[in-house]
Design brief:
This protein has helices at residues 14-17, 20-27, 64-73, 94-100, 139-150, 162-165, 200-219; strands spanning 2-7, 32-37, 50-51, 61-62, 80-91, 105-110, 126-129, 185-186, 189-190. By secondary structure, it is an alpha/beta fold. The protein folds into two domains: 2-150, Alpha/beta knot, CATH 3.40.1280; 165-222, Trp Operon Repressor, Chain A (Orthogonal Bundle), CATH 1.10.1270.20. The strands form three sheets. It has a five-stranded parallel sheet with strand order 2-1-6-5-7, sandwiched between helices. A two-stranded antiparallel sheet has the order 3-4. The chain has a two-stranded antiparallel sheet with strand order 8-9. The structure holds adenine.
């Protein structure tokens, strides 16, 4: 999968993409990530990426020309999608991540929340939001989506079943049971005795109960 990101803050991405599973995914050539600085496609000597809105009003609006020019430069032949990150877009979720994981290429345009020239609508396939809250720009949302999608690309996660084991792959309702490791007692918090019992039936039952409890808490969003 090839990911292209259009941004005015290219340096934001470096450390995250060069650590974690995404680093391995790139070195295994399962994923490639290309950051494009929109500013480099500006025509004027001040490299202006934004301007005042027509009709007046506060704030600045990201210009369409450098975005268009950058997109043309990276035009794709493969099955691809151009996404504008936007808090008013379609909600990103696990099902959407699964669909995206089947593509060959994705392009993300990171808007700034103050605004982007509305003609961007003519060149994108969809607007996507990572949640019902407003961030200052699309950079974090692009990272979130790239991470969630990459995890679903075969071979990206170390153990072949790891992605299947994730809560959402087992359906929206699935919750994991609590896990513990050494030490057996930390401060005054002890590992539940049943987990040390060696009785696998009892352990399975206990885990089931914990999942039920977690689901009922989740239903109440507490
Ligand atoms: N840009 C600003 N806020 C956003 C959000 N919640 N999702 C996607 N893009 C955004």
């Amino acid at each position: 999968m090839k990911f292209d990101i259009l941004t005015i803050f290219p340096d934001i991405f470096d450390s995250y993409f060069n650590e974690t599973i995404l680093k391995r995914a790139q070195s295994k050539k399962l994923v490639s990530i290309h950051i494009h600085d929109i500013r480099k496609a500006t025509a004027d000597k001040h490299h202006k990426v934004d301007d005042r809105p027509y009709g007046g009003g506060p704030g600045m609006v990201l210009k369409i020309n450098p975005i268009y020019k950058t997109l043309k430069k990276i035009r794709q032949k493969k099955i691809s999608k151009i996404i504008l990150l936007d808090p008013a877009g379609k909600q990103f979720d696990h099902d959407r991540a699964k669909k995206y994981a089947l593509l060959d290429q994705m392009t993300f345009i990171c808007g700034r929340y103050e605004g982007i020239d509305a003609r961007v609508e003519k060149i994108i396939d969809e607007k996507v939001s990572i949640g019902p809250y407003v961030l200052s720009g699309g950079e974090l949302p692009a990272m979130v989506i790239i991470e969630a999608v990459s995890r679903l690309i075969p071979g990206v996660l170390g153990h072949k079943d790891s992605a299947l084991d994730d809560s959402f792959s087992r359906g929206k309702d699935y919750v994991e049971f609590p896990q513990y490791t050494r030490p057996e007692k930390f401060n005054k918090w002890a590992v539940p005795k049943v987990l040390l019992s060696g009785d696998h039936k009892k352990i399975a039952k206990w885990r089931e109960e914990q999942v039920k409890k977690a689901k009922s808490r989740r239903g109440k969003n507490v």
